[in-house]
Fold:
Amino acid sequence: MTKAEKKVVGFVSRHILIFGFVAVSVFAFMIRYSFFPQRSADWQIYLSKWITDLGSHPGLSGIGENIGEYNVPYMLFLNIAARTPFEDLYEVKLFSIVFDYLLAGAAAMLVYRNSGAKGAGMSLAAYAAVLMTPVAFIDSAWWSQCDSIYSFGVVLSLYYLTKEKYGWCWFWFGIAFSFKLQAVFFLPVLVICYFASRKMSILNVLIAIGTFVFLLVPALIAGRGLKDTFGIYVAQTGLYGQLTLNTPNLYSILPGDSIDMFQPAAVYLTAGVLGAAACLFIKRGLHSAYSYITLAFWTVTVCTYLLPSMHERYTYLSCILSIIWAAFGRKRYDVLIAGTVNVVSIRSWMAYMFQQEVNFVLLAFVTLAVIIIVSTRLFTLRDEPIPAEEAAEEKTEEAPAEEKKTKKKSDKKTEEKTPETVKAG
Structure:
């Protein structure tokens, strides 16, 4: 190897993680770019029509009308997209893709802060997995959907929860909830942590409420009524009359699809399971970052498994949280569990994307097995606020500090003795 080669290889070796982040980012975009021409049914039936309708109104007045099913912030973006000279389809996809990267970055930050001495390497792994999972690039680049936006808010909320910055935690939850109703799957985590940590103030909830209300103001200014504006999510809950919409959950196993018969029981069942889990979690006094991350993954997965009228895409957040959870590597099979969650989701999406026949009963039992395994982990956890590797690092850092302190004391004693020595001479 020549000297020039050694310099290049040395430089690359010293900055290998940076090169890793750059390479992953570039190839992840190329994957997404290859899907740009694809026009999904959601785009053709809903999104393109909403953009056309919004563009037919002067200025931003379109968001004052009862157009579309999404909440105000996203409809405001579509209204702006309708007035630009660029291709609407590409704008919608690029907007979601930007949040794909922000979401991956938030996941990397969360892992880096809480995974000890291996944080840098594991954060790169989490960043790569979040960007490269088909769940992410199919949702944004193929489907033209925006699940990365609210998921980004949820992951940042979880990040600040682990940092005990509760104001920011509730602010980012408010952002997430403003974009998508499905952010509510994360709300039980915040409620449980309120009781478990005993540090969070109930007044922090006002931050989320204030954020949500503030982001609805443009619609009110544009002339939309209070009932319509604040009732968007209420209207969404009544849009679909099926127990499950291509989601491999409990209702894929049950015969029939009578929403009227099973819906109330399904809601009560979910509340009961979450309530029992909350009591166990709080009783055990769990409050480490890892326990909160495990709780978030478990809670979101259970909500999509037990609640009625779940779309296939509602498993998106569970897939992302499974990757973050697996990045901590407490057990060797955690990566397998995260992979299973993502594969099950993608397989269930095939029914809509390509009209393929999917065995939802089998996928539902696989998901149930994952829930049982993660439940066992969650409720047998012992709090470990500092991973072993991080603790070892801290001890290593403390040792030089102690040496410096001892050296300073020694130097001080020497200085005190010096005048006497001079005088004696």
About this structure: The two ends are 62 Å apart (CA to CA). The first helix runs from residue 3 to 14. The first strand starts at residue 244 and ends at 245.
